[in-house]
Amino acid sequence: MVINGENLTIEDVLKVAVEGEKVELSAEAIEKIERSREYVENVVEKGEVIYGVTTGFGKFCNVVISPEDTRKLQINLIRSHAVGVGDYLPEEVVRAMMLLRVNALAKGYSGVRLSTIMTLIEMLNKGVTPLVPCQGSLGASGDLVPLAHMVLVMIGEGEAVYEGKVMTGGEALARAGIRPVILEAKEGLALINGTQAMSAIGSLAIAGAVNLSKVADICGALSFEALNGVIDALDERVQLVRPHPGQVSCARNMRKLLEGSEFVTRQGQLKVQDAYALRCIPQVHGAIKDAIRHVKRVLEIEINSATDNPLIFSEEERVISGGNFHGEPVAISMDYLSIAVSELANISERRVERLVNPHLNEGLPAFLTEKGGLNSGLMISQYTAAALVSENKTLSFPASVDSIPSSANQEDHVSMGTIAARKALKIVENTTNVLAIELLCAAQALDFRMEKNRSLKLGKGTDVVYKAVRDIVPKIVEDRVLSIDVKKLTNIIKNGELVRKIEEAIGDLE
């Protein structure tokens, strides 16, 4: 993958971070990087006062650093800022963070040497992944703490994972045949002053959310059949008189999935209308699709931006101190994503309740078991879904509305964007499990429907869904450990296999 700082997509991030695709810099990026670095070296030689290059950091911005101490300044910056705590970020998040830092530096506004960027690329391509604690970032001045832990490994310190083993950063570099970086003027600051940790976490969260927005339609369609849903509510005419793009897309998905189904009903056939958890699927899922599309647009702007400070405009011979490191755009978007994905889980859990509740499930056995009492069936699966939904609600409280001043009030408003991104990623994980539970319950409900009337056919898409579930999870006849079933279904959701199977059968979902 050729990196130029301009056109990285969320899909590209996944290819590198998860699938291990190699990266290289474009010729244009190399030229911009070298031009920017040349200007920084000229400024240092002239002894000009520039924040973070010939001065201290934060509240120390008025402390001038002598030319002979500029190298020491950068090393001290990395060591002093590596104060992360908590669990380590997953390897794919750190790889995404490294890629995004390379892409930001490739824009040529940071004044970093080409050799320094090439070290980061080499680490990425050879699989040297720094161990980065997940807590410690305020989201302005960017992700200082997590990025400092990344840079520690670049200079041969800290810890890293290489070939599946944890070792010191120096040992990992040596084994991979990579020379440690000796940081020069501005390089330490340019490497850690940016939004790449929150954007990396956010990129994986948004990728997961895009997948879940399709999976939710798939699960909803299977439950729709299991509960003899009234298909009139999905009519295109209903959507076009309130034409939110997501609503129109969701209803179209549902119609494709349910095409040819003999388990759905028409208005007045068995009932006049369904409860909201079925009837309002296009309206709810659709609003979430629109939210996800918006957040994806914000993230793709962010991952192609220069976010450090100061910025080097070498062609105009200007160095400008600004605030592009502030994570507010990502913070607000991640909070928005948290709310949106939580709603996918909320309405899914309500469908699960209707499936297992004998007062609501249109004549199905209580808790979808034949010998109720002796067997509890899927009773407790709804408990787990409810617990996850409740946890999502607490995680959905916005991080971006909080701010605590830092650096003696020089940095007096911060975004908490990395906290927002971490919460969003956790909500995506929780919601994946809720949707897996819905798949489990809907397939079990359809078993009873089909046993009662074997001549009826499932929809063109839902038939594929049902078979995909039954390929890995058999019908529940006697009580068994259901967490194993949920995990299997979660895996085919997360790895995209479920969506792929459906789209191969009925065309792309929106």
TrEMBL record:
The modification 2,3-didehydroalanine (Ser) is found at residue 141. It comes from the Bacteria. There is a cross-link at residues 140-142 (5-imidazolinone (Ala-Gly)). Keywords: Cytoplasm, Histidine metabolism, Lyase. GO terms for molecular function: histidine ammonia-lyase activity. Contains an active site 4-methylidene-imidazol-5-one (MIO), which is formed autocatalytically by cyclization and dehydration of residues Ala-Ser-Gly. Its EC number is 4.3.1.3. It is found in: Cytoplasm. PANTHER family: HISTIDINE AMMONIA-LYASE. Belongs to the PAL/histidase family. This is Histidine ammonia-lyase. It comes from Fervidicola ferrireducens. The gene is hutH.
